[in-house]
Amino acid sequence: MAELATIARPYAEALFRVAQSGNLQAWSDLVDEMAAVAALPELKELASNPRLSDAQIAETFLSVLKSSTSPEAKNFVNALVENSRLALLPEIAEQFQLLKNAQQGSADAEIVSAFPMQDAQVGDLVAALEKKFGRKLNPSVTVDPSLIGGVRVVVGDEVLDTSVRAKLQQMQTALAS
Question: Is the pTM of this model over 0.70?
Answer without folding.
Answer: yes
